[in-house]
């Protein structure tokens, strides 16, 4: 059964993002794009042209779209469980079916769906359909795996950025700006690199396309922020150039449609072709002058003799004058820009006059208007610029480039007014973000970023929090981006609060990822206020299938002072080994976790096994555990008891006797087991008497008698009796040792005899 | 936010029982799945990426099994189940898939509808809700013994229980210095056929009814306490036969619970279950018209639907 209906009409698709720019060569980002030859130019990707035709950033002329909230519902998809949806309320109400939902225990964006029976089978009649008894895992998260390399790389940049703020360079304004731009560049490079990886992916499914669009949006937004907010001081002279470069790189013109191409190909004279001129306008608007000059040169018609003033010569003259105008456009960054700019504008006016004077000769209104339009655009005429622009972005940046080439980022707000009289902004999140960046309403822009990608929001906000926002955007704070931001917080507190919440939101899905989990926790470590509580909550949820991973998890606990969690995780590891009966490892982890009760239970289990069978089954286990005097009492006893048995086996009776006495004296063994230790004294005492070796002192014998009394205490009588009964089974019958009894008579008798032996020795 | 259609994200359904299934529960790490059914069995599956393997079928209940819940792994691989037969069983995996029933709780006199393990900071502690109107709390001790407290909770019947996070709301560090009983909250919520949600708290005199939340006009089917990550607020969601979902919000430990309707108009059918995401920011609601909707609180404190899954 497919989860999705075969009928695609039932599946609500993602809103398609129609802008499809060609691959970006970011190596050319600093300069003007290289000039394509006419043929190449015409044969560029047809998809790109759709940008100009159906630009997402524009929708014809009209009122500005204000206050739009992104419609998340448009991104809905419907999942069909079995049986397929029959939207009949009675059907569902009266059937025994309901849908259940449970969020994943460790991943915030994953959940489980299933169809459940509302009533027990005893209460319902068999329904006439096949019940779905499947469980479905669903996810709202992005595909982390395909972004693994990107996340790894950008985490390094993030870490560098964090370190940079405490560096010496950061304190100085000029070097801080350079550092900031470098960091921003590194992020953009990482985005571009990932775009390339996505483009090289042979699989061009919907998911890859969506990722590509997201990353292109992220690049456009990040770069615009860099240009608008991070580059300051004297580099502002270049704002208009930077913006036009940004436009050409992020939203390139694209290619002509097939229809337009045919029009160009079939035209007998390009000078009279509308497509040619509209293309030329775009090149001029976007400051793509080398290409524009080539275009103009392509309509120069060689004239054999210039003796007679004819129409072609006049047109050629005008073209040459326009080319001259374009070529002589002053560089904005030069020192004498103001004067040069004024001179150049008057040169444009002259050429315009010349064109109009020669219009009688031209006898071609279309040509005349076209030349005048180009000169008007060059001279920064707002009407000419906006009438030939296809989108608000193109209009705005062309206006800045031609009319306000020396403007500052804070001046742009004033320019936006006429733009939005002519153009409306598409309501998609990216357009809204770009618009707000120009308005310098970064808080609102970031608010829309959350609809694009959590990586973008968290990393951009993090970087913005590192700069002096007062200086950049005049006292605007990034408050409030998250619901927990409260009015009682100061602006700085609120910013930190928003930054941390966004970083946590981004890092959360990484925490349980098989390879990126450590990076996830490192992000949390950079959240001073709220990070720790998240680390604490999630660290225990990281599944560990090997000891290496387990140690890494513990290291995170240790680094963050999470003692209780460290103990919980270590206990879980111990319990895991306990389940597979690897007692050595179990005891090591329980010892680390300080689980004394659990250790006691395991040790008692071994002692019980001895009592039941007479066999020491814990030799290997106890040998694998590092035991010292500070170790847990039960483990310590088990270790001493194992030593006693090995000494007996090796016939080191004297040492064995000493260990036995120590074991009794320290009282670290279970009370029930004291009697067993006392039984062990009997053969040693006998051996001493027989070989006339003094294995015990008089004081030891007195102690043995004392312990006999305590063992026979009422409180432990019952358990003692049971123990002896179990031990009797093998002690006498199977092994042929002395006959033990509940009243410890053999011990008491041997003590008497040993005392006499000691007196005899003394004499 | 978007629901991925990709194969990686929306797994093919896992075939489970031959009769009505009543619950599906992932373990603490999300690596094991337990399902229970009217066929009186519980099935355990190992999940490894897209691979799922049925590893065990637990039999023992004498009626349909309503709910299952996994204990924290530090207590072992332990599962609690409750059934129409009025019993609660505790099952343990002793290794290599050797599951055994280790405890049986049969103090209830009618169907036990819900079981929930408490936060691990409180030790192994289990709450159960029964159609006999009572809620019981079982505390397991290290020596293998256990205590049971049975509380009169909801007339006609108790439907569900949900534990509060062990963290005191607003505490940025949950449990300090390895002392699990200091600075922790020991509370749970129950709901029932008396249309009420009740908050139970453990104090010097044992378990006491702390608060009664009135808001629903019909049986309350499910209740879910939101995880808390250092925020001062406490959130609790309840859903009901009256086709509404209420989010109960407590802004500080001393302030009262404030009732917020998830949406002003009613759902189209009875709302059966509510579940919070791990970070407590998204609420999933499953209603009787076989729809699952996901909700998030906006900056204005209103709840807005962010996703909808149909049948």
Automatic annotation (TrEMBL), chain A:
- Name the job this protein performs: Functions as a component of the nuclear pore complex (NPC).
Superkingdom as given in the UniProt entry: Eukaryota
The family note in this entry says: Belongs to the nucleoporin Nup85 family.
Keywords on record: Membrane, mRNA transport, Nuclear pore complex, Nucleus, Protein transport, Translocation, Transport
GO molecular function annotation: structural constituent of nuclear pore
Q: Which InterPro entries match?
A: Nucleoporin_Nup85
| Complex formation | Component of the nuclear pore complex (NPC).
- Which biological process annotations from GO are given for this protein? mRNA export from nucleus; positive regulation of DNA-templated transcription; protein import into nucleus
From the Swiss-Prot or TrEMBL record, give the protein name. Answer: Nuclear pore complex protein Nup85
The main location class comes to nucleus
Cellular component GO terms, alphabetically? nuclear membrane; nuclear pore outer ring
Q: Where in the cell is it found?
A: Nucleus, Nuclear pore complex
Q: Which PANTHER family match?
A: FROUNT PROTEIN-RELATED, NUCLEAR PORE COMPLEX PROTEIN NUP85
UniProtKB/TrEMBL annotation, chain B:
Kindly list the GO molecular function terms attached to this UniProt entry.
structural molecule activity
As recorded in UniProt, coiled-coil segments are: none
Cell compartment(s), UniProt: Nucleus, Nuclear pore complex
Alphabetically sorted, this entry's keywords are: mRNA transport, Nuclear pore complex, Nucleus, Protein transport, Repeat, Translocation, Transport, WD repeat
Principal localization reads nucleus
Q: Which PROSITE patterns match?
A: WD_REPEATS_2, WD_REPEATS_REGION
**Which GO biological process categories is it annotated with?**
COPII-coated vesicle budding; mRNA transport; positive regulation of TOR signaling; protein exit from endoplasmic reticulum; protein import into nucleus
- Which GO terms of the cellular component aspect does the record hold? COPII vesicle coat; nuclear pore outer ring
WD repeat residue intervals: 58-92, 213-249, 271-296
Q: Does the keyword Protein transport apply?
A: yes
Q: Which InterPro entries match?
A: Sec13/Seh1_fam, WD40/YVTN_repeat-like_dom_sf, WD40_repeat_dom_sf, WD40_rpt
Q: Which family does it belong to?
A: Belongs to the WD repeat SEC13 family.
This chain belongs to which protein, by name?
Answer: 1453_t:CDS:1
